Amino acid sequence: MRYRPLGRSGLRVSQLFLGAMGFYESGGADGMRGHRAVLDAYADAGGNVVDTASAYGESESVLGELLTGRRDRFVVSTKYTISRDQADPNAGGNHRKNLILSLERSLRRLRTDYIDLYWVHVWDRHTPVEETVRALDDAVRAGKVLYVGFSDTPAWVVSRADALAQWRDRTPVSAVQVPYSLLKRDAERELLPMAEASGMTVAAWAPLAGGVLSGKFTGPGAVTSDSRVAPASLTPRDHAVAGAVREVAAELGATPAQVALAWLLARSPAVHPIVGARDAGQVTENMGAVDVALPEEAARRLESAAAFEAGFPGDFIAECEADPWVFGTASVDPGARP
């Protein structure tokens, strides 16, 4: 396992994050033993970031119990935005009132005095981003939050929030959280370039596309029913990509899940896949992705199976850069930028 700084901070975070949505229900004594085994397997493999949210059922409370006696060993991240009471118009959103009340509840559930990484869970277009930035900074200054991030938010909003933070000497945005996988590459249009240019960490959720890229629904022994994904709804593109992943995995002596995660890790040093797991064995398998060296030819094969277009303005600008009519005939070394 290797570690990278979180955004522009000095906090070291592991290549793979553990998603704790699977701790949605405690499941009694047997369930807690299973949850503990998952967390232990993740920690034994060198992982140190556990990601949860106020809206993930009992996850925060379960995690709080599992971290007793070793809380400071982990980078704990949780989120706010989702409504705490659907009958109360102020129980959801990114405004100051919901942030304060959600944060206090998360601290109690997690049995901790501080959150390492506090996320805005989803963009709230009704709350000025200036209010959110200031409220997050106040939580940091109070010592209850160390770093902040934005999940499921447009690139222009995140960029504006980070610029406001820098201009006004407030806590910068350290990370963004987005869905990202071989099957869902939308983040490459705006969010990933913005994060790379701004020095932000990218936490990639659903890196296995709900299990499709693990081979769970395709190939030998495929599952025919699942609570998250309807196998019958998979498209020819889904099957083609999953098949390419299986082929590369067989060539490399790895599992399909490891190959799909290794592809993400190779895309950018900013990207950190969030892996979930039903048991300790699955955690151990997923964590093995950090040891998979993906040849460039194999990466190209995987990408060619998943047709993707950046669209405007990305594709248009790329065409302009290749056209001497626009910038002349002299070539520019892309590595020469300071």
From TrEMBL:
Domain NADP-dependent oxidoreductase: 16-305
UniProt keyword Oxidoreductase, yes or no: yes
Pfam families attached to this UniProt entry: Aldo_ket_red
Top-rank lineage group of the source organism: Bacteria
Keywords annotated in UniProt: Oxidoreductase
PANTHER family reported in the protein's UniProt record: NAD(P)-LINKED OXIDOREDUCTASE SUPERFAMILY PROTEIN, NADH-SPECIFIC METHYLGLYOXAL REDUCTASE-RELATED
Name by which UniProt lists this protein: Aldo/keto reductase
Naturally occurring in which organism (per UniProt): Nocardiopsis sediminis
Phylogenetic classification of the source organism: Bacteria, Bacillati, Actinomycetota, Actinomycetes, Streptosporangiales
